[in-house]
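Please complete every field before forwarding. Incomplete forms are returned to the sender.

SECTION A: IDENTIFIERS
Entry label: holo-355
Bound molecule: flavin-adenine dinucleotide
Molecule representation: SMILES string

SECTION B: INPUTS
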Amino acid sequence: MNDTVDEIGHVLRDEGIDADYTKQGFLSLARSSAQVSRARAAVRASEAFGLPNQWRLMDGREATALVAAEGCVGALYTDHCAVVHPGRLVRGLARVVEALGACIYERTPATSFSKNNITTPGGSVRAPVVVRATEGFTTQFKEYRRALIPLYSLVLATEPLSERLRTELNLNHRMAFNDMRHLRVYAQVTADGRLVFGGRGAPYHFGSKVSSQYDLVDDVHEKIQATMTEFFPALSGVRVTHRWGCALAVPRDWHPSVGLDRKTGVAWAGQYVGDGVATSNLAGRILRNLILLRDEEINHLPIVNHRSPQWEPEPFRWLGVNLGHYAAGIGDAEERLAKRPSRVAGVLESLTGAH
Ligand SMILES: Cc1cc2nc3c(=O)[nH]c(=O)nc-3n(C[C@H](O)[C@H](O)[C@H](O)COP(=O)(O)OP(=O)(O)OC[C@H]3O[C@@H](n4cnc5c(N)ncnc54)[C@H](O)[C@@H]3O)c2cc1C
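SECTION C: PREDICTED COMPLEX
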């Protein structure tokens, strides 16, 4: 995964795709004592996994000098992160694969697929290998209804911030950042100086339903904006110019998977939760190797042919996932007051497999 961040940079450079890519690392701020405990636990976990240099622990002063969010008492930093304009990335890649001879058919939904065959409203397509890469939309196919849940992540962008404001908030760089709360948030400054700030917290919809109307939810976007101004009170008068969102695919064990079933000819890649920009590149290269029978070291990573357990049937799925969300919010509130990590959030998150 660390190497994949550089691989994307090399592809963009070699193919002449301008996607505002820059690799300036990632800072996960600790804004309470409980978050500092989690930062320390993350460092210990990386060391135990065999990556002692993955994260660097910082104190509050060092962290605030990088991102002047309110109440920083520490942070974790890693070099292994880049930011990119995802729309430019995907359009640039599309141009490259079309120039290589591939055809991309937009507005052509697959209504079902089976061995060597995909059915669409306009007709059938036959192929030796069918790749399912439908991520958060996968639950539309009835045989995958319990394989994943679509979890909505919503995000906003401010108007370009003035030079003065960016200097005051130590935001005149393009390092990605968040804090270590349970209910995930994420942020970066774009090439044109806007702050992009997003988070989870949108409800899970019964029966794993997906719909474009769930991409824009006023009260969730308002909560995200409130969290942004809680990080940076100086942004309270700044205009939000863009809001959007979509579903992430979450498997029961929060573990990505890529593979090919040679008996059925069906390959798959996905369930990246919120980390799919780099993981989809890695999964794409693994799929190429599996389909073309090329042996490379990446073919033996634990994500290859990984099988996740199914989610519970409804209504338990709806109850569990939304309760997990609620507990994460309560846990964050509790941790702002208490000095230790929230037990409620810990127990409920472990029941839904979240980490
Ligand atoms: C708001 C938000 C913020 C995110 N932030 C980050 C981040 O900071 N870092 C990160 O790494 N990841 C992030 N992600 C996750 C990342 O965007 C995804 O993991 C990544 O896009 C997955 O790529 P993909 O090509 O597998 O799937 P997608 O990009 O989801 O593409 C799936 C495609 O399948 C198509 N499709 C669906 N159903 C059908 C059908 N029946 N027939 C035909 N086509 C179909 C869809 O139209 C879509 O084009 C974020 C996601 C969201 C929503």
